[in-house]
Structures are given as structure tokens and as C-alpha cells.
């Protein structure tokens, strides 16, 4: 029978949180940490760059600092705060703001470069490469958005270099370098995206394995216990009846001994399909909890409904006429039912499982192919 304490002593799979998570949600969540740190690093870098503008003559920084402050720094501070302080936010809106930041930072960089050079100062060209790295890779933007940023930044740089009378050959070489650098960053971005997609599929597969019985494809013992706890507390809050139906197959060992495990596996698949069709409501489900044992969790059912399900399961299993031996014995089931309604006698989870096992044992003891409803007085 089902040993609750033995099961709970086992290890727990930590991937259940993605049960209802779409691939898009997973990719957004996985890239969140990258964006958070990239934004924080970008904010610190941009503050330092803004402060560094004070090294230029007043006529220069009085133009560059307002442009940096209002067009880039304020939006950057806002979105950095959004990613670090808010648990939920409008991803589509923030994605548009990230695209704006990538383009605006490139345009402002070009403006600062032009202003400094035209005043006779020096401004390093490495800043454009850093912006391309930031926009195409570190922000984790979708490939299309990263490509848009790259094109705008490269065109901006070429125009500004031309306006500052840089030799055409130098402009061509720098443009080629920026293009190659951007392509490399975008390829790295795409590779990371594919790795995340493969991870998502792998985690989904692991999650499926962790909660489903490999043979019958109904839920397994682990899932039964973990969800029993969740649904039990929900039933307690809502004062709803919660029932466990334990189904222990009769003559199953005899079937394996006579016809082999292949025949036994085939019988289990057929029987699990029968049981599963009676779990149609959202919180009802069936799990294989042992070699030849199943458990059904029924939420908010009344006694007549539960008894009707038990009778139908018994009838359907018997109608399969699966012979367990050459002497004519067939596979049937001994069923035990235990319920708690939180209004009268209340059983805790361990008692509920134990009571359903006791009732199933009573059915087997009284001749098999029957169901017994647990009664504490009997």
C-alpha cells in the first residue's frame, strides 16, 4: 500500500514552477537577470560618462550634458528601477523603451562626438563599439530589435564621421569594423536564444518525467502527494469535501507470473485509460501510486457521485476480461474510499491516505471486485 512517510523522505524535483509557463514567458524570465545587470552596469557607465563631459570646455558640456541627461540618463534610470524593483511589468512597453535607449544612446553619442571634435577636442571612437555590444548582446534584445539598433548606430557614426571631415577611407574601415562587430554580437545573441530554447524543452521534458508515470502516462506518486497537499488546503479553506479513491488490482501478480510483464504492462495501460476518463473536473486526477495500485483524488464530490464512479470503474475493468491465469480468473479491482468534508469528522492528509488504504484492503478481504467506503466506526 501507499507509504506516505517513505515517499516524503525522497528527493524533490525543483522544476515544477514551469508547469504552466509558456516558452515566451520562460525566455523573458531567463533573460531578466541579464537585463537587470546590463541596465545597472549601463547606468553606472553612463553616469560616469556624463560626469566626464565636464573635462571639456563649458561651451561643449553645456550642450552635451542636457542631451545625455534628458534623452538617455533619465529613461535609463527609470527602466533600471523598473527591472530591479518591480516584480511585474509590461514587457512589451519595456521592450520598446529598451529599443529607444539603444537608438537614443547612439544618436546622443554621435552628437557628443560631433560637438567635441568640432570644438577641437578629442573623443574616443571605442564608445560606439561599446554601444553596439550593449545594444546587440548585453541587453538581450530580440534579434530584430538588436539589428535595428545596430543599423541606426552604424549609420549615425558614418554620418557624424563624414560631417567632422574624417577621410572617406577611414569612415569605410570603421563602418566595416562596426558592421562585423555587430554581426558577431547578433550571432552570439542568437546562439544564446537557441540555447535557452533548448533548455526550455529539456526542462519541460524533465518536468514531464518527474510528474508522469512512464508506462501509463497518468500522474505518478510524487505528483499525487505534492498536489494532495495543495488541494487539501484549498478544500479546507473552501469547506469542500475531499476524497481519495484507492484502486488495488486483483490477481495482477498472477497475470505477471502467468503471461509475463508485457501482458501486465498492457493491462495497466488499458486500466489507467479507464480510470482517467472519470477524472474530468479541473481538480480531479488519477495517479499510479504503486505497481498495481492507482489513486484518484476527487474534489467537492458527494457520496452518490463517488459511489457511481467506483461502480463504473469496477464494471469497466471487469468488462475488459483480462485473464490473469489459465484457470479463468480475470483482473478486477478492490477499491477503498476515504473522505473528509471539513464540517464533520476531519482527517489530516496522512489519515486520509491511510483510511483509503484500509478500505481497499477491506474490499480485497471481503471477496475482491467491490468498493468499500471507510467508516471509522466499523
From TrEMBL:
Keywords: Membrane, Transmembrane, Transmembrane helix. Pfam families: GGDEF. This is diguanylate cyclase. It catalyses: 2 GTP = 3',3'-c-di-GMP + 2 diphosphate. InterPro entries: Diguanylate_Cyclase, GGDEF_dom, Nucleotide_cyclase, Rev_trsase/Diguanyl_cyclase. The chain crosses the membrane at residues 37-54, 66-84, 96-117, 129-162, 168-196. The lineage of its organism: Bacteria, Pseudomonadati, Pseudomonadota, Gammaproteobacteria, Kangiellales. Its EC number is 2.7.7.65. Residues 240-376 form the GGDEF domain. It is an enzyme of class 2 (transferase).
Amino acid at each position: 500500500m501507499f507509504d506516505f512517510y517513505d515517499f516524503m523522505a525522497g528527493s524533490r524535483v525543483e522544476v515544477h514552477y514551469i508547469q504552466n509557463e509558456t516558452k515566451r514567458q520562460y525566455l523573458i524570465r531567463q533573460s531578466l537577470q541579464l537585463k537587470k545587470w546590463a541596465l545597472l552596469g549601463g547606468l553606472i557607465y553612463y553616469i560616469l560618462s556624463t560626469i566626464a563631459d565636464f573635462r571639456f570646455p563649458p561651451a561643449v558640456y553645456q550642450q552635451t550634458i542636457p542631451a545625455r541627461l534628458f534623452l538617455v540618463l533619465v529613461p535609463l534610470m527609470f527602466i533600471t528601477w523598473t527591472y530591479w524593483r518591480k516584480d511585474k511589468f509590461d514587457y512589451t512597453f519595456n521592450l520598446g523603451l529598451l529599443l529607444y535607449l539603444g537608438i537614443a544612446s547612439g544618436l546622443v553619442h554621435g552628437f557628443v562626438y560631433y560637438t567635441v571634435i568640432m570644438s577641437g577636442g578629442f573623443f574616443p571612437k571605442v564608445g560606439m563599439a561599446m554601444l553596439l555590444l550593449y545594444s546587440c548582446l548585453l541587453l538581450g534584445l530580440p534579434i530584430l530589435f538588436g539589428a535595428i539598433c545596430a543599423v541606426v548606430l552604424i549609420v549615425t557614426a558614418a554620418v557624424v564621421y563624414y560631417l567632422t571631415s574624417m577621410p572617406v577611407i577611414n569612415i569605410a574601415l570603421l563602418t566595416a569594423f562596426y558592421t562585423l562587430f555587430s554581426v558577431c554580437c547578433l550571432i552570439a545573441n542568437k546562439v544564446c536564444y537557441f540555447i535557452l530554447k533548448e533548455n526550455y524543452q529539456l526542462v519541460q521534458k524533465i518536468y514531464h518525467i518527474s510528474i508522469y508515470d512512464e508506462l501509463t502516462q497518468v500522474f505518478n506518486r510524487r505528483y499525487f502527494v505534492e498536489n494532495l497537499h495543495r488541494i487539501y488546503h484549498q478544500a479546507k479553506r473552501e469547506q469542500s469535501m475531499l476524497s481519495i479513491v484507492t484502486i488495488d488490482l486483483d490477481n495482477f501478480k498472477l497475470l505477471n507470473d502467468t503471461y509475463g510483464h508485457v501482458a501486465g504492462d498492457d493491462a495497466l495501460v488499458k486500466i489507467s485509460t479507464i480510470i482517467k476518463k472519470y477524472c474530468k473536473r479541473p481538480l480531479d486526477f488519477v495517479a499510479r501510486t504503486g505497481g498495481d495500485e492507482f489513486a484518484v483524488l476527487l474534489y467537492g464530490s458527494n457520496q452518490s457521485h463517488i459511489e457511481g464512479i467506483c461502480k463504473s470503474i469496477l464494471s469497466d475493468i471487469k468488462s475488459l476480461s483480462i485473464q490473469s491465469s489459465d484457470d479463468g480468473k480475470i483482473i478486477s479491482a478492490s477499491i477503498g474510499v476515504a473522505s473528509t468534508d471539513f464540517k464533520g469528522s476531519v482527517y489530516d492528509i496522512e489519515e486520509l491516505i491511510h483510511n483509503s488504504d484500509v478500505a481497499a484492503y477491506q474490499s480485497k478481504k471481503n471477496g475482491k471486485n467491490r468498493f468499500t467506503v471507510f467508516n471509522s466506526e466499523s
